């Protein structure tokens, strides 16, 4: 792989002699690269840096935009193609508080991190590899960091917390997409959004806002480890939905740790889903009306499915919270289990702790991403900044959901409205069986309840599963499969699901 610096365009660079020195300006660097693929070289440009976004203050003269944010992104554009017809994919992670380093270097970009996997995380010195499965083969790629993540910051004099909320973040990312399409004259290109985790919440909200506000119809949305209705996974009194939706994930994680010896993963998942959908709701609804014998029998059934002591299940009133499960599953071995990816483990600091104290999957994967993104941006992409690249930041909290007072935070209605309005938009949904952050059964349930025609569910929504966790691309077979599914999604090589849910 090689890189050659080019001269940025006059409208995208700053000058030391600029008389308006106090006004924030774009800081962009463009380099040329070539990726060797089996079918030949893929030549592309990478433009890394921050762009200044403006807004029209209320009551001011039309068009007098005021700077309010400086968003960081990396844009990859293939050379020698018809840009007007070539798809472009905008990608972002979630958190809230996560930069897009994960999708960028884990799955989509032309370079990828060698992170290792469960049981064999990579040790320093960390390295980047050419990504022969990059989505850049099929679409230009723009990875963008949300406010206060990566290098994205408010404009001088502005406050970051004004962008720390579902609606505010939605509007900011929408503005970035509109700005990018305009700057690069790509308004006729098929437009795709790809989000992971809370990034799927963002993608659904942004796609709907693009259509509602600007009549921009996206060609497709890739939802990786989705969360579309927070009520399906937020544990609190009076809400039994998370206990139901997490149980199949618990069973899959138990299988990964040998609790279902001799059985296939799919067989275990199918049994757990059948129990969750048929028997478990009635057991929880019965509550104190269950006899002691009925409760013991239910606890034994649940304990066998998820690999824990039935008495522990009974003491929990048949309701297993996910952080408690991750601390309990391998307690006898002195280990805690990963939340982002239940295949990962680490020694327990307190063998009697009621909840997992830290997430081994994030702890073991993040250092490789941190090291390589910093080296990559400065070394290969030649971009530098005097602020810290925040791969994960708690400074975005509290995150505002002010539009959802007294009701569950959800964007399923946004997604459904978009699909009703835009008949050509399609959706790819990717689930990791061992993901204890956004459980697959919760997503299945929400998608099945979308207010869209049944035939649209079968023809326009494709759902795929992987034997890994939230960031399934750290597992090589899953990375290859997901990359292939994304390629098919963008190129139209495969249709949606052949069978209805």
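Sequence proposed for the structure above (501 residues):
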């Amino acid at each position: 792989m090689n890189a050659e610096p080019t001269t940025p365009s006059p409208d995208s660079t700053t000058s030391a002699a600029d008389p308006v020195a106090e006004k924030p300006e774009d800081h962009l660097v463009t380099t040329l690269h070539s990726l060797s693929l089996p079918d030949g070289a893929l030549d592309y440009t990478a433009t890394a840096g921050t762009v200044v976004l403006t807004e029209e203050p209320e009551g001011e003269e039309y068009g007098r935009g005021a700077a309010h944010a400086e968003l960081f992104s990396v844009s990859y554009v293939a050379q020698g193609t018809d840009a007007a017809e070539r798809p472009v994919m905008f990608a972002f992670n979630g958190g809230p508080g996560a930069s897009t380093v994960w999708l960028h270097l884990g799955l989509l970009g032309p370079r990828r991190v060698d992170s290792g996997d469960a049981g064999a995380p990579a040790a320093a010195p960390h390295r980047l590899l050419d990504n022969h499965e990059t989505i850049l083969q099929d679409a230009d790629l723009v990875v963008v960091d949300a406010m206060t993540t990566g290098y994205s910051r408010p404009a001088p004099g502005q406050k970051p917390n004004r962008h720390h909320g579902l609606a505010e973040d939605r509007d900011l990312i929408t503005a970035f997409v509109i700005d990018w399409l305009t700057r690069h004259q790509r308004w006729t290109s098929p437009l795709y959004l790809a989000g992971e985790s809370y990034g799927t919440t963002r993608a659904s909200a942004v796609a709907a806002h693009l259509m509602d506000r600007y009549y921009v119809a996206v060609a497709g949305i890739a939802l990786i480890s989705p969360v579309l209705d927070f009520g399906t996974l937020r544990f609190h009194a009076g809400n039994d939905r998370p206990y139901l939706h997490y149980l199949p994930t618990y069973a899959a994680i138990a299988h990964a740790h040998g609790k279902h010896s001799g059985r296939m993963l799919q067989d275990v998942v199918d049994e757990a889903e059948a129990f969750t959908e048929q028997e478990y709701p009635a057991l929880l609804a019965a509550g104190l009306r269950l006899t002691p014998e009925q409760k013991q029998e239910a606890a034994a059934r649940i304990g066998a499915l998820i690999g824990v002591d039935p008495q522990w299940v009974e003491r929990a009133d048949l309701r297993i919270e996910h952080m408690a499960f991750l601390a309990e599953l391998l307690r006898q071995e002195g280990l805690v289990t990963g939340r982002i990816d239940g295949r990962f483990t680490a020694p327990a600091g307190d063998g009697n702790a009621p909840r997992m104290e830290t997430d081994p999957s994030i702890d073991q994967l993040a250092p490789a991403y941190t090291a390589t993104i910093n080296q990559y941006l400065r070394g290969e992409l030649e971009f530098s900044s005097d602020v810290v690249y925040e791969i994960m930041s708690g400074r975005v909290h509290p995150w505002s959901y002010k539009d959802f007072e007294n009701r569950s935070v959800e964007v399923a209605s946004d997604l459904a409205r978009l699909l009703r309005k835009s008949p050509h938009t399609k959706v790819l949904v990717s689930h990791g069986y061992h993901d204890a952050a956004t459980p697959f059964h919760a997503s299945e349930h929400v998608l099945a309840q979308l207010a869209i025609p049944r035939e649209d569910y079968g023809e326009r929504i494709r759902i795929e599963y992987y034997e890994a966790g939230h960031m399934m691309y750290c597992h090589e077979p899953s990375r290859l499969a997901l990359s292939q599914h994304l390629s098919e999604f963008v190129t139209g090589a495969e249709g949606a699901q052949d069978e209805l849910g």
